[in-house]
Amino acid sequence: MTTRRTVDQDAIALFDEFTHGTMSRRSFMERLAGLAGGAAAAAALVPFLQNNYAEAAVVAEDDDRLAAETATFEVGGTAVSGYLARPKDGGKHPAVLVIHENRGLNPHIKDVARRMALEGFLTFAPDALSPVGGTPEDPDRARDMIYDLDADENLARFAAAVSFLAKHPASTGKIGAVGFCWGGGMVNQLAAAGTVLAAGVPYYGRQLPAEDVPKITAPLCLQYAGLDERINEGIDAYVSALEANGKPFEIHVYEGVNHAFNNDTNEARYDKAAADLAWGRTVAFLKKFLEG
Q: What is the pLDDT confidence band of residue 38, given thresholds at 50, 70 and 90?
């Protein structure tokens, strides 16, 4: 990463509201200007608040330890594509579904898939927007497209992605999932969707309503950011429902860090210490349930 800069927490909260709602970029910039003290100051803040995908390649696209390609499967006559990465050893591996944020399948998520593949997993990052033309370059447009998806159809496609991985010739048949933000919420949903999912790791994802918790069939490793008031308001009810229904889970809250603390392309919110700790816990959790 480049040199870190401290960004006012109100600006981070405003950006979170913008990225997870229907606020227009014009309205966001007007409100940011009010916080920053003017339009010029607001414009200077934007690069620190938004993702910079030039920082994405922790693992190079052409890393010679990996094989990576675009893969496609069909569900209900609809083609769904994504990014498939695996160790280049010709063997079978447990598999992990990597589910993107509400900005679609971008270079950062592809890099996360490669990182997971280097941990010894067959890894697939589906593009939820592939049935409607694919993730656009404009992240604001991607956000709008995500929220236009039919929720039931979208869940069915991710459930089919689990089956796709389970049947892949390079898979052992043991499948886990890790997701971030919108993708974290999808991991929670998948755990209760009646798939063969064997483990799920939702990062700062929207929780399931209590009435859906009895349907959960996969152990969960819940990862939350201490400053993430929007998502964290649902933690207590979720934990209570998981405990009441005897569902196996572990929970980690990283104090003093923001929503999206794992995203190392976002200078304002990335926290290396929390991200590294969470990643270690994620890999250990997945190996515990997928390698046995």
A: confident
